[in-house]
């Protein structure tokens, strides 16, 4: 019988290097407070936070799982792929991430233009300046809309302006989940399908991604119910995937249910993830 320690492992978090609110130092400090001892940091399309997070985690006695989260789309539906044990010294990987971050930048520029054209007086330069340290995303635009009083909180800004079909929306450049998985495999990282319920067709997605090297399936996602965790665990077991988990923490108050350290990730998961790292060639 494996033991479950609900406040110990969190493999999905964001920092100011992408669209999180906490700096690397703040994230690690909060992880200590929350009793997280194995911390995965998975910023969108950037590894810029990882050196600082590593230093802070070492000093705090936290085990860091260095990661990244890649955003792919299938027919406009989002498919996010987490990559664990990324090597930040691998310039082939960091160059590919830079291209993805540039594509994000252009998309957000277009979204700002659209919103300004509609009369929302947001400061585009100030928004885009936040990409300097890593990557930019829609939550940065959401915060600017809140600042000018056009939205009450981040989910409200998405609902009104930033989701597909809303006036500020611009689709991403095409990037297939297969390409995301291959990129990670080629650079010796472990690819994991993030928050599977975002993906319209879970079985179909696994049929596409397992053959190209998918190794994990984000089962213990904090926003999901215990029943959903069980349902996802059965799928992970059926496909032989590591049932990872995490909170998708982006900062306090960013979105309900995404509380650092709140995902019930079993100890066994960290063990399997570290064992898989040993198998990486
Ligand atoms: P982007 O990567 O620029 O497309 O922005 C997507 C990010 O925004 C993801 O990290 C999500 O966590 C966050 N996000 C997406 N939809 C919502 C929503 N409805 N409310 C709050 N955050 C959201
Ligand atoms: Zn995010
Ligand atoms: Fe995601
Ligand atoms: Fe995320």
Description:
There is one protein chain. The protein is α/β, with parallel strands linked by helices. The protein has two domains: 9-90 and 179-280, Alpha-Beta Barrel (TIM Barrel), CATH 3.20.20.140; 98-162, DNA polymerase, domain 1 (Orthogonal Bundle), CATH 1.10.150. 42% of the residues lie in helices and 13% in strands. The chain has ten helices and eight strands. The protein has a six-stranded mixed sheet, with helices on both faces. Helix 1 packs parallel to helix 2 (50-60) and helix 5 (138-147) packs across helix 6 (154-162). The longest helix is centred in the middle third of the chain and has 27 residues, at 91-117. The radius of gyration is 18 Å and the shape is globular. The two termini are 31 Å apart. The relative contact order is 0.18. The structure holds adenosine monophosphate (AMP), zinc ion and fe (iii) ion (FE) (2 copies).
């Amino acid at each position: 019988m494996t033991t479950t320690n609900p406040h110990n492992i969190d493999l999905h978090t964001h920092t100011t290097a992408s669209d999180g609110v906490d700096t690397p130092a703040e994230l690690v400090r909060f992880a200590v407070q929350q009793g997280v001892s194995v911390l995965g940091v998975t910023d969108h399309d950037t590894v810029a936070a990882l050196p600082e997070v590593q230093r802070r985690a070492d000093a705090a006695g936290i085990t860091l799982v260095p990661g990244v989260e890649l955003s792919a789309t299938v027919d406009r539906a989002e498919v996010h792929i987490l990559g664990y044990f990324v090597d930040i010294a691998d310039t082939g990987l960091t160059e590919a991430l830079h291209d993805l971050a540039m594509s994000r930048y252009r998309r957000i520029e277009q979204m700002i233009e659209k919103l300004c054209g509609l009369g929302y007086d947001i400061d585009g330069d100030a928004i885009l300046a936040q990409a300097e340290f890593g990557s930019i995303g829609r939550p940065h635009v959401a915060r600017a809309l809140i600042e000018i009083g056009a939205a009450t909180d981040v989910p409200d800004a998405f609902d009104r302006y930033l989701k597909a079909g809303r006036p500020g929306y611009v689709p991403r450049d095409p990037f297939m989940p297969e390409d995301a998985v291959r990129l990670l495999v080629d650079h010796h990282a472990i690819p994991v399908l993030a928050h599977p319920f975002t993906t319209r067709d879970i079985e179909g997605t696994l049929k596409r991604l397992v053959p190209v090297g998918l190794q994990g399936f984000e089962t213990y996602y904090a926003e999901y119910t215990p029943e959903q965790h069980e349902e996802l665990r059965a799928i992970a077991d059926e496909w032989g995937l590591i049932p990872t988990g995490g909170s998708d923490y982006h900062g306090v108050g960013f979105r309900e249910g995404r509380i650092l350290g709140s995902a019930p990730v079993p100890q066994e998961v960290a063990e399997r993830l570290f064992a898989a790292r040993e198998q990486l060639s």
